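Before the break, one more example. Copy the sequence into your notebook; we will annotate it together after we see the structure.
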Amino acid sequence: MSVEFDIGAVMRGPVVADELRKWPLMHGTLQTGRELEDIRQGGLIATKPKLNPLPFGEELGLANFVFLAPASFRLNYGYSLGAILVDPAVLQRQDLRFSDRDLGDVIDFLTILSEGHGYCGRAKETDTLAHLLEREKMTSPESLPDEWIREVLRSREFAGYCSRNYHLTEADFFERIEAEACSFPISLREYFARSVWFLREEILVPRVVESEFLLGYWNVHCWREWRKARTRETQIRLEEWLKVAAAFCTR
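Here is what the structure looks like once it is written out:
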């Protein structure tokens, strides 16, 4: 099959796990100006400020990770002004973590419950979380809600909870996206334009995404290319993504 000839048809076709993993990934960012230039040259570094603004990120063990997700036309990954598009070749690393849900949902649940309110969010296995929080409240009734939450996050039981619910293999990660897209159903293009979407996909990269994987900066209005993709096939997909994104964002 000629990728160049059929790439438009691929975009209009269904979401298929093996195909999706060949398209650009995205890191939402607030960085501008000189900070972006530093990223272009030195890579995305997890310990830099603003990369991981999630409350309790250190207790969750997330402070040393850079967060990526399959690219979206809506810039709806993180609180971002723009996005850095990342070569999917980064998936060849063996030290990545994958989740189809955001651990931020867990923090929302624990925060709301610790303040005595009801919860209707999307955290998994909420009975377990409620049990762990209640145990901390009974152990330290005079503590503040934040202290209860920190003790829950540091517990051995919570580590097991995360392992069951938020640590997927790469294959399971992309297959869950495919299954969710098939339940609508939506095309690959519609997936990249997702708004109403149940999953909250995250790919966690330890320490740094090296500059060699960073393709450029996109903020809906313009694209600044930093480097070509590693393969011609990926470059074709990137160019198609940018073309369709530009049409989508100017509607």
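The CA atoms of residues 215 and 227 lie 5 Å apart. The radius of gyration is 19 Å. Try to locate both features in your own notes.
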